[in-house]
Amino acid sequence: MKPYSRAQQKATELCSAGARALSGEPGLHVRGNRLYRQHTPLPIPAVHLHPAPPVQSGDEATPFMIKRGQMDAIALHLRYSNRPLHRQLAPQPPVARLIFDLLEQFRIEAIVPDHLPGVRTNLARHFSHWAQLTFQSGLTETQIGNLLYTLVLITRSRLHTIPVPEYAEFAIEATRAAIVPVIGTDLAGLKRQIHNQEKFAIHACAIADTIHAMIDAELAQQAENSDASQPDNLLDKVLAAFPLLLSDEALADETLSLAASGESKAFTQHHQRYQVYTRQYDEEVQASSLVRDALLVEFRDKLDEKIRNQGINLRHLSRQLAAALNPPQRNGWTFGEEEGRIDGRRLSQLISSPSERRLFCQERYPPTANAIVSFLIDCSGSMRDHSEKVALMIDVMVRALGMAGISSEVLGFTTQAWNGGRAYSDWLRQGRPAYPGRLSEIRHLIFKPAERHWRHARKEMAALLKADLFKEGIDGEAVEWACQRLRARPEARRFLLVLSDGCPMDTATNLTNDKFYLDNHLKAVVEQQQRQGDVAVLGIGLGLDLSPYYRQNLAIGDSLEVNNRLLADIVTLLAGARR
């Protein structure tokens, strides 16, 4: 799997911002290849807006251009199409509905205002890419496929007042000559009523019904010469090829896996109220107290050796962090400047030395450290494989933050036992009541408190390398706990960076509630923290896209190479969330 670069992350953020601006809906954002409203994926309004295959060599459009065009088109649909009216007027047959949806999308794309030329360019590039790939797929070699493809090109050409692509002219020439006389009146009606959705739909329905009838006639003719089942199979094949939909495996090279998420019936039935069966066994503990002192020393030596071999420029990183998190504040003046405000005390120098230029003073705005960054590490079993590199990354970041005068804290979350432990045993003894809520013994770990500098906590931080600390993970409660600790701090700007490689997972809780119970609680917690606004909650996904949980996030490839580039990406993530 290719690593998910900061450039790809930035492209996703730009697509999200563009979609919000075009639609006027602040809750839109992009995850993977879909546009979401909050946590709900939006329907794809037209067949050509499904995710397309990777850009072929020789294609002028880049993957970002294609994705931007797709997201712009869906956002425009939200703004310019009346969905209830569209559903009311849409024809029932699948092929007719496909055509009707497509024509409505073409109408929307054709009425983009003149002051948005960039959006028009994005839409044109996306459609051109889709049309060329569809042509190359061999769709036009079948009669039904050629009919649909010809209709797409001539209707878009008419509505957008552009020529049909040269590469397709010969392939569609005969079909165009056959259908234009039949649908010509309604084609003209589409153009004439382009600003009136209801009247436009009358002509769109007529065209959709006509083409549907043509396909029915073609299928009936084919049925006379073949098996009765053949036409249906042929139609399925054409409709399947038409969207150029890809399986998840085909898209795997382009993006990391998206964190699996869904709706929890147990969470919904309790009115979004999270339940805990018992807190009797929960604990908050210094992680170093769970590791023998001699082993901590061994872990620390091992970590130091790895850091020395990484070649990381700590001073440069600390300057980057200071610039990103320490905003400048007015603090006195600098004198003897060559520009700025005239310093009255130096006017006599102008008389004695007319060539003197250093007669000015300027206000001084040095960076002021008033921020704290808390790292919350998922210490579930799957993270054990990443523990060495996570420890290395956290150690380097904490050292650099300290050099920049920025406070830091390192926390972790896990459970004391597998499969619910004593909490699960209590539940069994008490008759297994339904929907018990969280059913485990959580353990919140403190590797480095905010009050201690890295120099004094360096040995304790090596406890991250203790493998048997890693069990199961209750993410939502851990995020709440970490945010509460941050709010107790005096710093004005507070950041929480959550590092995880998967969804919330606790076997006993999932079995006795449902598999998305902890997932839904994490979403609710993060949304609540975002509404409060005094802590910026960010996610770093290791081999996973955590955007279902964290609006601001960074996805990193499975390999997790700790280098200057990765650390710069983390700084950029923090800078983008500066409060």
TrEMBL record:
UniProt domain VWFA: residue ranges: 370-575
Protein name in UniProt: VWFA domain-containing protein
One Pfam family, short name: CobT
Top-level lineage group: Bacteria
SMART domains attached to this UniProt entry: VWA
GO BP terms in the entry: cobalamin biosynthetic process
Signal peptide boundaries: none
InterPro entries registered for this protein in UniProt: CobT, CobT_VWA_dom, NorD/CobT, VWF_A, vWFA_dom_sf
